[in-house]
Amino acid sequence: MSPGGAAGHGAAKPQDRGWAWMVLLATVLLQGLTLGYPPCIGVFFTDLQREFQASNSETSWFPSIMVAVLHGGGPLCSILVKRFGCRFAVMLGGLLSGVGMVSSSFCGSIGQLYLTAGFITGLGLCFSFQAGVTMLGYYFVRWRTLANAIASTGVSLGFTLWPLLSRYLLDEMGWRNTFLIFGGILLNCCVCGAIMRPVQLAPGLPRQSPKPAEELGRRAEGAQLSNGASSPHPELRQQSRRTACFQTLQKYLAFDIFCQNKGYQIYTVGVTWMMMGFALPHVYLVPYATQNGVEERRAALLISIIGFINIFIRPLTGLLSGHSIFTGRRIYLFSLAVLLCGLSNFICVISAEFSVLIVYCIILSIAMSGIGALLFQVLMDVVEMDRFSSALGLFTILESITLLIGPPLTGLLVDITSDFRYVFYTSSFFLVSAALFMGLSFCALQKKPKLKDVSKVPLDNPSKYQHDETPTEPRPESQSPPAVVYVTSI
Fold first, then answer.
1. What is the pTM (predicted TM-score) of this model?
2. What transmembrane ranges does the database entry give (predicted)?
């Protein structure tokens, strides 16, 4: 019997031990292959610009589309995971990302690159990363915080190694052959997915009661069926469709939370605004350095420095932020990290010497580690956990929009002014203003007398939070499938 089948019919898989650590290792590799990959695209920026005779704005659409789809494909990945399981989603993502990069090596225009390397590869990276993180949550309960902190080191390893490999292969064989090799490397996501055996739902768990919207939909459907197929009721059918549509929106895009929860509203707007400037240094740092006389190999090393420091700082920050002393104060730590990230951009504006850029990368990396570690911790603080999955859906969709348009708009500004320093001015403006907005808004919100604290429910009974990941098992109609949380990171 295959590993997947064994999980579906045998005893419940042991969590926090045994095979769980193999899944953790696979997740580390997945995060390095997926989230660690987009920052290396800046290494190819100048060569692609020359190859296709494209402007800065046109060239920057390629990494922008990739990153936007990687972040914004969460709801689609969640549907895929619920229908087919995490293992299938991870392996499909590896296949898509590999095919996308192989196809990119044959592109004859920058527009074709948008589709292959931008959309197809970005969607594959999204499926592999988010389904992999979801599976990690199935295998770890007691040590989930530690597992996620260890898994996040994969991102930092990717940040470190991808630019160095990109620069070496680009010098040796050109960007087309490099993209071809990258396609083969990304196919290793399929190997990681094969390691992720499905997890069985622990026996004896209480069935979840249906939500009010689900109950309303079932009543409408039942009323329609009870009247027979020969005498359908158009009003009931229409009501049932409206209910199903409303239920889907509530599940994946939490508009009701956005309208009612001021903390979620402030945080979502602040992070969405922040993302307009957050990705700019990753795209333009290497072109900026090379334009100012830094040798190309050394310029690629700058991105690797950011990743190397992240290897140590990001997990440490994630673990420290989970301490009880920071409960209720993480939003201020997050705002401080965003502020530091914005102010650090002024360092490389002062001078483009390699030694100065190294100092800039060190400070930027420390700030980025804080942002990456706290981004979803803060979201868990402002939203009740039973609605976290749907709140995250709207959150990632909105941030993906600004991630998409930020670099091209800034590239247009560079085309007009012929000065890369405006990239860092723009990044600083968005980051500093977002930090001040979030920090001051939450400070004012907490001073309101009617503010209510939302406390997290401790995991006193970890078995309650185990999930059934086997998609082939039929479920009783009265039992709702477990919620799948789709996660992005930066």
1. 0.70
2. 21-45, 61-81, 88-111, 117-139, 146-165, 177-196, 266-287, 299-319, 331-351, 357-379, 391-410, 422-445
